[in-house]
Amino acid sequence: MLKAASFSKSKHLNLDKVSCDACTNTFCLVKKSLKVLETSDFLDEKNEIFCKKGQQFIIEGAPVNGLFFILQGKVKVFRTGINGKEQIVRFAKNGEIIGHRGFGTEEYYPIGAIALEDTALCYFSKESLQKGLRENSEFTYNLMLFYANELNRSESKVKSLSQMTVRERVVDTLLYINRKFGNLNGFLNLPLSRKEYADYAGTSEEQVIRVFSALKKEGLISASGKKIGINDVELLSKEISEHNFFLDS
User: Fold this and answer.
1) What is the DSSP letter of 55?
2) What digits encode the pLDDT tens for the residues 131-171?
3) Which of 76, 127, 148, 201 could make an S-S bridge to 169, C-beta 3.0–4.6 Å?
4) 73 near 67, Cβ under 8 Å?
5) Residue 200, CB half-sphere, CA atoms under 13 Å: how many?
6) Hey, what domains does the chain have and what are their CATH numbers?
7) Are the CB atoms for 112 and 56 separated by under 8 Å?
């Protein structure tokens, strides 16, 4: 398990310990099951870990020790593909689980995870989770539903990647970031490099640059350094409307 990182208090991150009862992440799996979990000692076994921007807290191939829940922050989840090429599996925000792809019968994490900004994480060890799941059927049921939804999203993404053109995959990535993180001052509230866009969309950095250039000329997006803004979400969505679904949510 990663030891708590030591860094100066960020003006963007509240480092005070937060109880699950006071947590505002209503979509968090633990928060959803709070009523049944309060009767056990499961919540007392929670640890909080604080990561600096750019810090990796799950190393791909490392032994599985437990699950992380994002209390506050943004995270990139990735895995290494052919020839060492990084493939971004997803981006995660407050309330989401990290490390679940290795939890269960797996002995090693099949993914890595890096904080995209100063991030606070709630950590439960594998032993605590296994005990909590055995003792609380509602918690187990909620986790089962979570895995079912994850499987559906993964299957849809695999299917769509084979059907979409490079431009459509890049457009879908922009819309995904917009849905998930919203915008700030006219730009997507998750500044990413062109390479990160490419690693999520399953294409090359050069292709992303070309698509962005075309979209800017058509007035569909604006750009300022790493920042990308969508000028008309509805109009951009029409680019992939024939697919009738998005790659992710």
Assistant:
1) -
2) 999 999 999 999 999 888 888 877 777 766 778 899 999 99
3) 201
4) no
5) 21
6) 29-150 (2.60.120.10), 164-243 (1.10.10.10)
7) yes
Tokens of 5: 């990182």
Place of tokens 């810090």: 55
Contact 57, 68 (CB under 8 A): yes
pLDDT tens string 24-79: 998 899 998 998 888 888 899 999 999 999 999 999 999 999 999 999 999 999 99
46, containing H or E segment: none
Confidence (pTM): 0.85
Q: Please tell me whether residue 218 adopts helix, strand or coil conformation.
A: coil
Neighbouring residues of 57: CB distance < 8 A, sequence distance ≥ 6: 2, 49, 51, 68, 113, 114, 115, 121
> Who contacts 247 (Cβ-Cβ below 8 Å, separation ≥6)?
156, 157, 160, 161, 169, 172, 173, 176
42 close to 89: Cβ distance less than 8 angstroms: no
Residue 77 in tokens? 């989840």
Give residue 32's Cα distance to chain centre: 19
* Helix (H) / strand (E) containing 88: strand 86-92
The single-letter DSSP state of residue 43 is G
C-beta of residue 239 within 8 angstroms of C-beta of residue 175: no
